[in-house]
## 1
Amino acid sequence: MNRARNTLEYTMDVTGTPEAVFPLLCPVREYEWIDIWDCRLVFSESGKAELGCVFQTWFPQDGPDDTWVVSRYEPSQAIEFVRINALRAIHYSIRLQGAAGGKSTWIWRQTLTGLNDEGDALVIAIKPEAFAEKMAILERKLNHYLETGHMLKA
């Protein structure tokens, strides 16, 4: 029996080249530009994002504590994470492409899978409009940081 699955995608226009911006997709560096970010680094040889890096987050609105694993790491091109808790698993895929004027386009794809009945309900409840709104906020925060060097607070 297959559990519930929901795949969502969002494209960001980012003020910075993939080479300049990619390092910010890191559990340690996200403290610089995401005001609500909170994690605990479990394993990283470099102290930053890398293939096999493991960290944990706890955002009550997302359910129980999550464990994340970097499952793909290609600097300036792509990063993927698997994020899991007792209710659902999420596969994040972020691909970066250079754009004119020293900018970049990021394609975020998120595939959620329920692990039990409660997880299925959470997965089904996530609507594309709400995901797009959440990602647009993240896009504004990132671009603000890139343009000013300062975090945009909610």
## 2
Amino acid sequence: MTKPHSVHITRFAKKQLKRLPRHIREAALAWAMSVKLDGLQKVRRLPGYQDEPLKGDRQGQRSVRLSRSYRLIYEETDSGQTVTVVVVEVNKHEY
């Protein structure tokens, strides 16, 4: 049995989501709902999201692809009974 997951979107990320295109907002919310329902480990295995760990200043964070250009950045904490996923930022990825 997997641990229950909760998803928290920071105030900063909520402000960013309001300014982004509707399809990006919907993709971010769909990802969050998938994590709540299926668990983070299962959602990480889905190839469309391309979940990957970040390096450098963002070590300890992970990114998920919402579209070709936009990324959702999150952190995961495990309190023993539940896993909390904190959405830190949603931004346009610079290539």
